[in-house]
Task: inverse folding
């Protein structure tokens, strides 16, 4: 009896095991379709995910990055279908898609393993944290570094500046001779000059919900703005934007020996538009102010991945977001520097081997500079760039001074913050 | 005193009334497709927005005039309203003076040449306004414009200096003028060509010079068309959206995301996700347009026959 029983037991167990494995197989094979809204640069990445995951089909729709926010808001308002996963080309979208009016983004807090999060560069995910919650994962970095034409700098008898004071001195030496070191009206570089000295344009207050610190008229801001005014006066910062024909002509004719720009500037602006000769372009870490312990650098771009909080497949959505931001094999071929360090190291091999650059250290500089990313480069419901354009850029292009426009910037930012329901400190 | 029988009284026989009714019916039949589309895409959205403007669009809760107070308390509203009024004033003035002068001059030159010129004037209007903005960004940029020498003469060497010198309102007014004036020149040309030739001949026989004919005879006879042009331009002007919205194509330093009132309505709906506030602002804009149009039509007795 005993044997029989145990045999039966074994059989039952075996049958149960078989059943459960069938069930698991059935579950695994359960096809899931996720709708993804992507830009064109990320299409191959999503296609690779689709290929590698048998049971998941991605319905990828190409959406103009500028229209993404409007389309999702319209979709939420009208009750039409909204995507499960999105690529956000603008870091501002994160906070704009996590409001009472457009409550779209899935909360990823505690869902992404801490070990994975630790693999990102410092502050790489700060645009994804909103009031302490993680709402997205950063795809690529875009921090500002110093780009320069190595032979040209040598020819001019100049050394690459390490501090903002040396940068200003370089401008004073070269500006009157017709050389330019960047634009004084393009908003992002302007923001980067200002915040480098500790100027607080719209910085979230730690621990306080939806609270911003805005102090655009502080000594730190005045110091940086005065430097801009001096450099505009001696001609080393131009009243045209870095993509405007006059500036491009200047750069092409070898009159831009050095410019502060984001990590993507080398590959996508200096190489194709400014047409620096092969073997001339080098990079250096962000500048410090005299007396500052270490530099702090703003960013110009960097996309993020987010998911829909009411998706039917939250686990698959999470998996896709984490994979897209951190899969080393797929990020190796990314168009811009990945925010995930192991992926970035794999990605950087190509840059190191690229004979276009003056040396193999450009990527090392990008990596070293990533440590200095400004923690205040976060997602805001206000458009900092447009506020700068309307006040500082307008003043400078009209022949005025940046310093004199700081109070107007303070008013504009405070008003915008209050309009968008921020507490202002 | 016995009143003379009006022509209407003489029509009042049964068969004539039937014919008239049939003609009216046919007119309604032809109007129907347009009216259907107008209701679907013109009237219904206005009432929908009107209804929406009193609700919290997220929870669907009625909350009275909250959306209106939100919008009226927006610090950007007075600035945008000022921008739009400045733009509209300049653009409507340019349109009324420019189109009238050009139309009257075209009417005084040989017909074939006038037709050719009218077609040429019309061409920019055939390009959609968004594409036209991009075109104008080139025309106005002193560094690439074919009119470089003229712009340099005025002291503008970059697009920045031109925008600062002229002001955005004037820049947009110039863009809009060239986009729409060609169409109006054709319309006013039509009004001028329908003027009775004997009146003009009589004036000429009496010794009136061409400019006297234009100003004293033709202009007073087409004033209704010019007023209509003014009303429609005003209604279109306060809705300016494309020009400031697309100006950032010239560079981020030109970004004007809240320059006009319609841009504010757009930003409420599609940046802040607040469709109720957007509807409230849109409703107020429609009311302004409609009120002004009604005032002009009834005060000037626009549709009253002479």
Result:
């Amino acid at each position: 009896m005993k044997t029989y029983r145990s045999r039966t037991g074994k059989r039952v167990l075996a049958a149960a095991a078989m059943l459960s494995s069938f069930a698991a197989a059935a579950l695994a094979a359960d096809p899931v379709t996720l709708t993804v809204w992507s830009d064109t640069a990320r299409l191959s990445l999503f296609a690779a995910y689709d290929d590698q995951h048998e049971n998941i089909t991605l319905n990828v729709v190409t959406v103009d990055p500028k229209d993404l926010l409007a389309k999702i808001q319209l979709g939420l308002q009208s009750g039409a279908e909204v995507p499960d996963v999105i690529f956000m080309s603008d870091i501002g979208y994160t906070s704009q898609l996590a409001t009472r009016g457009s409550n779209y983004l899935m909360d990823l807090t505690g869902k992404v393993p801490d070990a994975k999060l630790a693999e990102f560069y410092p502050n790489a995910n700060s645009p994804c944290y909103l009031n302490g919650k993680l709402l997205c994962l950063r795809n690529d970095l875009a921090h500002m570094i110093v780009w320069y034409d190595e032979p040209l700098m040598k020819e001019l008898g100049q050394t690459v500046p390490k501090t903002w004071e040396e940068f200003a001195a370089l401008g004073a030496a070269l500006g009157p001779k017709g050389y330019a070191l960047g634009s004084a009206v393009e908003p992002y570089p302007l923001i980067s000059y200002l915040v480098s000295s500790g100027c607080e344009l719209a910085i979230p207050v730690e621990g306080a919900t939806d609270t911003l610190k805005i102090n655009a008229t502080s000594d730190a801001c005045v110091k940086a703005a005065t430097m801009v005014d001096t450099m505009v006066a001696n001609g080393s910062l131009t009243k045209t934007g870095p993509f405007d024909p006059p500036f491009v002509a200047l750069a092409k004719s070898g009159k831009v020996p050095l410019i502060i720009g984001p990590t993507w500037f080398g590959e996508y602006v200096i190489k194709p538009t400014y047409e620096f000769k092969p073997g001339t372009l080098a990079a250096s870490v962000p500048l410090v102010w005299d007396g500052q312990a270490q530099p702090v650098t703003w960013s110009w771009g960097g996309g993020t991945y987010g998911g829909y909080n009411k998706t039917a497949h939250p686990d698959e959505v999470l998996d896709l977001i984490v994979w897209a931001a951190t899969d080393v094999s797929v990020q190796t071929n990314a168009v811009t520097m990945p925010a995930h360090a192991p992926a970035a190291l794999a990605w950087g091999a190509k840059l190191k081997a690229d004979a276009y650059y003056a040396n193999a250290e450009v990527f090392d500089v990008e990596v070293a500079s990533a440590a200095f990313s400004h923690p205040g480069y976060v997602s805001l419901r206000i458009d900092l760039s447009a506020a700068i354009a309307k006040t500082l850029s307008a003043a400078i292009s009209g022949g005025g001074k940046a310093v004199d426009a700081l109070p107007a910037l303070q008013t504009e930012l405070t008003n915008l913050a209050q309009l968008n329901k921020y507490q202002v400190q | 005193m016995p009143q003379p029988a009006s022509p209407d009284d003489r029509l009042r026989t049964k068969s004539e009334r039937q014919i008239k009714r049939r003609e009216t019916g046919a007119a309604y039949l032809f109007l129907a497709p347009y009216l259907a589309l107008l209701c679907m895409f013109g009237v219904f959205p206005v009432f929908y927005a009107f209804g929406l403007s009193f609700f919290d669009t997220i929870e669907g809760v009625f909350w009275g005039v909250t959306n209106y107070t939100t919008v009226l308390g927006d610090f950007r509203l007075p600035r945008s309203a000022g921008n739009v009024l400045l733009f509209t004033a300049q653009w409507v003035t340019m349109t009324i003076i420019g189109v009238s002068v050009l139309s009257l001059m075209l009417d005084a030159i040989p017909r074939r040449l006038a037709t050719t010129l009218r077609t040429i004037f019309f061409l920019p209007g055939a390009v959609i306004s968004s594409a036209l903005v991009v075109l104008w960004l080139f025309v106005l940029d002193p560094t690439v414009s074919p009119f470089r020498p003229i712009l340099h003469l005025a002291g503008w060497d970059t697009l920045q200096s031109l925008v600062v010198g002229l002001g955005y309102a004037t820049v947009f007014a110039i863009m809009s003028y060239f986009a729409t004036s060609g169409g109006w020149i054709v319309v006013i040309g039509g009004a001028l060509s329908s003027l009775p030739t004997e009146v003009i001949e009589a004036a000429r026989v009496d010794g009136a010079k061409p400019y006297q004919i234009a100003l004293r005879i033709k202009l007073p006879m087409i004033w209704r068309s010019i007023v209509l042009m003014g009303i429609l331009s005003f209604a279109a002007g306060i809705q300016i959206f494309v020009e400031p919205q697309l100006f950032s194509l010239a560079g981020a330093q030109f970004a004007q995301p809240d320059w006009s009132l319609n841009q504010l309505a757009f930003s409420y709906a599609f940046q802040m996700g607040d469709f109720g506030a957007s509807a409230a602002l849109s409703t107020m804009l429609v009311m302004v347009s409609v009120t002004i149009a009604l005032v002009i039509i009834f005060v000037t007795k626009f549709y009253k026959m002479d």
Remarks:
- Chain A touches chain B at residues 69-70, 73-74, 76-77, 96, 99-102, 185-188, 239-241, 243-246, 381, 383, 385-386, 389-390, 393-394, 397-399, 415, 418-420 (CB under 8 Å).
- Chain A has a mean pLDDT of 91.
